[in-house]
Amino acid sequence: MSPIRVGLLGIGTVGSGTFNVLKRNQEEIRRRAGRGIEITMVADLDVARAQALVGDGVLVVDDARKVVASPDIDIVIELIGGYGIAKALVLEAIESGKHVVTANKALLAVHGTEIFAAAQRKGVMVAFEAAVAGGIPIIKALREGLSANSIQWIAGIINGTTNFILSEMRDKGLDFDVVLKEAQKLGYAEADPTFDIEGVDAAHKATLMSAIAFGIPVQFDKAYVEGITSLAAQDIRYAEQLGYRIKLLGITKRVAGGIELRVHPSLIPAKRLLANVEGAMNAVVVHGDAVGTTLYYGKGAGSEPTASAVIADLVDISRLHTADPEHRVPHLAFQPDEMSDLAIVPMSEIVTSYYLRLNVADEAGVLASVTGILAEAGISIDAVLQREADEVGGEGSTQTDLIILTHDCVEAKMNEAIAQMQALPTVLAPITRIRKEELA
Amino acid sequence: MSPIRVGLLGIGTVGSGTFNVLKRNQEEIRRRAGRGIEITMVADLDVARAQALVGDGVLVVDDARKVVASPDIDIVIELIGGYGIAKALVLEAIESGKHVVTANKALLAVHGTEIFAAAQRKGVMVAFEAAVAGGIPIIKALREGLSANSIQWIAGIINGTTNFILSEMRDKGLDFDVVLKEAQKLGYAEADPTFDIEGVDAAHKATLMSAIAFGIPVQFDKAYVEGITSLAAQDIRYAEQLGYRIKLLGITKRVAGGIELRVHPSLIPAKRLLANVEGAMNAVVVHGDAVGTTLYYGKGAGSEPTASAVIADLVDISRLHTADPEHRVPHLAFQPDEMSDLAIVPMSEIVTSYYLRLNVADEAGVLASVTGILAEAGISIDAVLQREADEVGGEGSTQTDLIILTHDCVEAKMNEAIAQMQALPTVLAPITRIRKEELA
C-alpha cells in the first residue's frame, strides 16, 4: 500500500523532531501502521534552512497555502502556532478534505468549537495529542482509555517551564525572579515567558482536558488563570514545613454547580506522586468513578517528545480514516450532538482549602482576632504555624509570619474573610493566599 | 443506531463490576461511543445468583457455549480465567465471527499466538486492556500512544498483591510470612497466592507488554520468573539505608542480543516515582527513544478498575469495527506479517547491577577475599555497607552482614563470583542476591 503523504507547516523545534523521528523509526512505524508515513512537502519561510534539514527528496515551499491546497497531501501537520495564519490554514486544510494534526493548544482552546465543527462537516479528523503534556498520551487516555468512566476531576502539572522554576525555587531557596533568569539561560523559559509564568499556557491545556473529560465545548475565556510570578521563596519553605509542596496545577472538576476550570499555584501533600514531579517534567492525575485515581507522567515539551505525540496522531489517522466518520473517536471524546451544556463555575463559587500567610505585628491578641474573623465566616482551621519574630525579621523584630491552613470553604467567603483580616491594623502587609488541594 | 450487544462469560468480581459500571454510566458511554453498549446475555454456573445480579432484563444461561454461539451477540467478554474452557470459548467466539474482550493474561501470555492468528483470519478483534495493570490504559499507551517510538525498555510494578506485601514489609519491618497472612486476611492476597508471590502473574503481564513493545510473539515460556518469597526484612532495611527500595518488577528491554524478559525483586533508587508506588497500586515505566521516560499509574486490580479497562475495549471495538480489518490497531501493535524474530535473551546473558548480602565471620581479611573474587571476575563495586557484628548478631556476636552494591555486569559472571564467594569458609550462610535497576 502506498505511503500516507504528509505536509508539514513550520519546521522549527517540533517540526524537525517530527521529521527526524519519522525518518529514524520509519521501518518500525510502517510495521505498526501497516503503511508508510512520509513527509513529502514542507512549508517554511526560510526555505534554504528547511531544505537543508529535510534533504533533497522533500519539496520545500515558502507558501503554506501550497501545502494545504496540494492534491498530493493526505494529512497536514500545523506547527506554526498562534491564532492568525494557523487558524486560516487549518480551516483551509479541512475545507480541502485533509486531516490535520496540530500541537497548537492556544488555537484549539480558543477556536476549537469552530474548527472541530468544520472538520465534522467535512468528515476529516483534527488530532491534537501534542497540544497537551507533550509526549504523554493523555488525550488518548482521557478520550479512549477511560471512556467507561464518569470522570470526576483532573489535576495536572502541564507546564514544564513553571515546574522547573518551582523545583529550583524549592531546591535552592531562591526567589522567582532569580530562577526565571536561570531558566531563560538554560532554555527552559522563553525570552518572553509571559504565557508560561502567567498560567496562560497551562490554562489552554486545562481547557482542552476539561472539554474532553466532561463533554463540554472549549471555553478558555471562562477559565480562571493565575500564574506563579508572585510566589515567594518563604511560602515554598513554609509549605514544606507543613508537609506540602507548591505546584502550578491545571484543575478541572465536576461539581454540583457545573465544572470547575482553573489554573493557579496549589499546595499538594508532599507524599503524593504528583508532588514529586520535578524539573521540566509534566504529569496529569485523572480521577474516574470506576478506575479511581490514575496518573500519567513524562516530558511535556521538547522536540522529540512532542514529535512522539504528533506521529502517534499520524498513525491513528492512518488507521481510523477507513472507519466511517460516525464511528471514529470524536474530537472532544463525546459525539458532537451529545455535548453537555454544564456551565463553568465562577471562581467565587469554587470550593477548596487554603494556605494563608499574614505578616503581623508580634503582639498579644493578633491570632485571636485573625482566627475570630475566620470563625465568624464559618471557615475552620486545619493547622497554624506561627514563626518567632526573630526568625522572620531578625533579632528584635516586631513583626512575624502567621501561616494558616484552612479546611474546605467557598472562595467567596474566603475573599470576604481575607478583606476583613487585611483591614486589621495588626496585619502589616498584603495577605498571601494560595489554594490547597489534597487530591485524595 | 441499535446498541452493541455484549455477552458476558463469568460474572464474578470483574464481571459484576463491568455490568454495574456499564449500567451506571450507560448514558455517558453512549454519548461517547455514539451507540449504546448493553450486556444482553450472561453465562454463569450459578444462574440464580447471576440473575439476581443483573435483573430480569438480561438472559442468564449456565452454558457459556450458548452465548458464544448466539446470533444475537456482537462481542463476547471472557472473564472465566485459566487456560482450558476459557481458551475453547474464546476460539469458538472468534470462529463464530464475534469480537472478544478478555482480562485473561495467563491465556494470552501462553496461547496468544494461536488466538490472535485465529482472530486475524476471521477479521475480528481480541482486546485485552484489562489483562495488564487493571484500569491503567497501558496497552493503549504502548500500542497507540507511543507508536512513533522505538521502545527501549519497560519496567513495571504489575502485581498489586506483591507490592502491597513489600510496602507492608518496609513500613512495619516485618518478614514475608507474617505480612502474607495479613494480606490474605485483608483480601489483598488469595487463599492460594502462588501465582502472585512467585511472580507468575507479573510474568504473564510482562510477556504481553514485551510482545507489544517489540513486535515479538508472546513467549511466556522464555520469561525468567522469580518471586518475593525469599525476601527478608533486613534486605529491605539495608536497601533503604543505601537509598533504594525493593519492588517486584516486570522488566523487558531491547538489548544487542535480543530482548530481555524477566520478573524478579529489584532495588530501585528511592527517589524514582516508581519506588514511591505504594500498597496495591500498579505503575509502568516505558522508555521510548523519542518520548524519553513516561510513567502510567493506577489501580491494577479490583472490580471497577478492571471493568474500566474492559468497557474501554468495548467502546474501542464499537468504534473500530467499521474500519477495514487491515487498518485496525494490530493485536500486538505490529502488523501480523511484520513481527520480529528477536530472541529472548537467556538469563545468564542479561546485564544488570546487583545487591549482595553475605553473612560473614567478623574477622580480618574477609572483605579482602570477597572483593578479590569480584575484582578477579571484572565486577566493579559501587558501594559497601559493613554492619557491626553487635548490631547484626547481638553483643559478642562473631558474625556480621556485608552488603555490596555492584556496577553492571553479565549475570553469568555474577553467578560464578557468587559460587566462589559462597565457597569461602568465612561466608557462613547462603548469599542473598537481588538485582538492581537504576531506571535512568
UniProtKB/TrEMBL annotation, chains A, B:
Pathway the protein takes part in: Amino-acid biosynthesis; L-methionine biosynthesis via de novo pathway; L-homoserine from L-aspartate: step 3/3; Amino-acid biosynthesis; L-threonine biosynthesis; L-threonine from L-aspartate: step 3/5
EC number: 1.1.1.3
Chain sites annotated for binding NADPH: K105
Classification via InterPro entries: ACT-like_dom_sf, ACT_dom, Asp/hSer_DH_NAD-bd, HDH, HDH_cat, HDH_CS, NAD(P)-bd_dom_sf
Descriptive protein name: Homoserine dehydrogenase
Highest taxon listed in the record's lineage: Bacteria
The keyword Membrane belongs to this UniProt entry's keyword annotation: no
Organism in which the protein naturally occurs: Polaromonas hydrogenivorans
NCBIfam families, alphabetized: PRK06349.1
Domain ACT: 355-436
Keywords from the named record: Amino-acid biosynthesis, Methionine biosynthesis, NADP, Oxidoreductase, Threonine biosynthesis
GO biological process: methionine biosynthetic process; threonine biosynthetic process
The keyword Transmembrane helix is assigned to this record: no
Family: Belongs to the homoserine dehydrogenase family.
Binding, NADP(+): L9, G10, I11, G12, T13, V14, G15, S16
Residues the entry annotates as binding L-homoserine: E190
Enzyme active site: K205 (proton donor)
One Pfam family matching this protein: ACT
CDD domains assigned: ACT_HSDH-Hom
Top EC category: oxidoreductase
GO molecular function annotations of the record: homoserine dehydrogenase activity; NADP binding
